């Protein structure tokens, strides 16, 4: 009952965070990130919990589903062209998700691009880089250190490498309802 009440209070400070995500996390980690973000004011403009070493550009253009795990260390999330995360997306440490790029002939100008789409039940491994306009299908595991330069819209797959390629098909995700 105490955890429920404290999560309700913390939820008031995170307008964009799903209450279920607070209840499913350990209270210690939720309170620690809350204290750093809302009291000390590191990443205070982000309406979901992120680690204090993570940088988020244009968080208002980032949409997240339920059970979005983004509290890993040293991530960089650049939402300037938009990023859409499905339900149950897990992001490992040092992941870079970059939705905007520079013009190759004038580095001071940015290129408008399609948003990044990451489907349901995806796991982005440590050190992976996802570049502008990429679409990743449901239940895709991105291997550690992968550089994703093109879309992988199929579901149930493992992608890895630089540049990323499909390594193997995966069995259906355990909790997939479709």
Any overview of this molecule?
By secondary structure, the protein is an alpha/beta fold. Helices cover 17% and strands 24% of the residues. It contains 3 helices and 16 strands. A 5-stranded parallel sheet has the order 1-3-6-11-14, with no helix packed on it. Helix 1 (2-13) packs parallel to helix 3. The longest helix is centred in the N-terminal third of the chain and has 13 residues, at 27-39. The chain is globular and about 50 Å long. The N and C termini lie far apart (34 Å). The relative contact order is 0.10.
Number of domains: 2
Extended strand count:
16
What is the global morphology? globular
Cα end-to-end separation: 34 Å
In round numbers, the mean pLDDT is 89
Do you know the CATH architecture of the largest domain?
Answer: 3 Solenoid
Order of helices and strands: HHHEEEEEEEEEEEEEEEE
Main β sheet profile: 5 strands, parallel
Q: What is the strand content?
A: 15-25%
What is the CATH class of the largest domain? Mainly Beta
The CATH superfamily of the largest domain is Hexapeptide repeat proteins
* Low-pLDDT runs: none
Q: How many helices in DSSP terms?
A: 3
Radius of gyration using CA atoms only: 17 Å
Sequence of strands across the biggest β-sheet: 1-3-6-11-14
């Amino acid at each position: 009952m105490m955890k429920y009440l404290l999560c309700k209070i913390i939820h008031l400070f995170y307008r964009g965070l799903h209450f279920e995500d607070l209840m499913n996390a350990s209270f210690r980690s939720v309170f620690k990130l809350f204290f750093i973000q809302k009291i000390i004011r590191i990443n205070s403009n982000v309406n979901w919990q992120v680690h204090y070493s993570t940088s988020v550009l244009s968080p208002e253009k980032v949409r997240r589903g339920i059970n979005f795990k983004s509290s890993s260390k040293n991530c960089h999330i650049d939402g300037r062209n938009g990023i859409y995360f499905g339900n149950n997306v897990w992001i490992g440490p040092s992941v870079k998700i970059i939705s905007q790029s520079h013009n190759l002939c004038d580095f001071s100008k940015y290129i408008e691009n399609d948003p990044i789409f990451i489907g349901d039940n995806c796991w982005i491994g440590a050190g992976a880089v996802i570049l502008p306009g990429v679409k990743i299908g449901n239940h895709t595991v991105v291997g550690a250190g992968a550089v994703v330069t093109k879309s992988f819209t199929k579901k149930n797959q493992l992608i890895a490498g630089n540049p990323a390629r499909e390594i193997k098909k995966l069995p259906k995700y355990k909790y997939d309802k479709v």
